[in-house]
Automatic annotation (TrEMBL):
Cellular component, GO annotation: membrane
Lineage, opening ranks: Bacteria, Bacillati, Actinomycetota, Actinomycetes, Kitasatosporales
Location of the AB hydrolase-1 domain: 22-241
Keyword Repressor: no
Gene Ontology MF term list: hydrolase activity
Protein name: Alpha/beta hydrolase
Pfam families in UniProt: Abhydrolase_1 (PF00561)
Alphabetical UniProt keywords: Hydrolase
Keyword tRNA processing attached: no
Amino acid sequence: MTGRVLPYDVHGSGPHRALVLHNWFGDRTSFAPLRAELDDGTGSYAFLDCRGYGEAIDADGTYTMEEVAADALAVADDLGWDSFSVIGHSMGGKAAQLMLLDAPGRVRSIIGISPVSAAGFPLDPETWELFAGAAENHGNRRAIIDNTTGGRYGDEWLGGLVDRSVRRSSATAFRAYLDSWSRTDFHERVRDNPAPVLLVVGAHDPALGKEAMEATWLRWYPNARLEVLPDAGHYAPEEAPKALADAIEAFLAA
């Protein structure tokens, strides 16, 4: 890792540019099924690893959404992109909104995939212990993934996501990001923001599905619209990659 530029790679060479930010349990490799479905000729997608994840697993940092946003803008600078959209999965969706606030003249639109809102994600004490304990307890990670995908997958699939998350994130970063994406609230700063927003959620996601979007994003962004994928939970890039790719490409083209 050189300076403030995160490890990244670009998929495609089309005119529709987008920075892509991963979720709490993934690094940029978690988008592999989605990448296989994207049209290389219509979009240019820069997939990033946040500090403490993937190829940046040993990178020091404060591990906050503000830092993710600043690092992602530095990647855009490195690419020479004056304007672009931001695609954020789960916690990546929260960082995408900070990019919009920090660089409103550059961020053309946001695509949130089961995205955390600007108000964060309040957790009751018992659920907080489950999430906070997931940094060290792999069983907690499995329980969270199982719940947020509607209990629809077996041990092999769940174990694969848990194993990747453990191998490709540092426990320190994983735990620190939780405070930032769940407990910080800046929704008054985004209220009535005119940016075009597409929200793509899974029908089987009880945490950040249709109801959560209606209570947060859709109230604050007047140009936001919602698309529900019937065959996905919280991990649409891996559960329903073709449907997600179609939604992304149609939105960017429009």
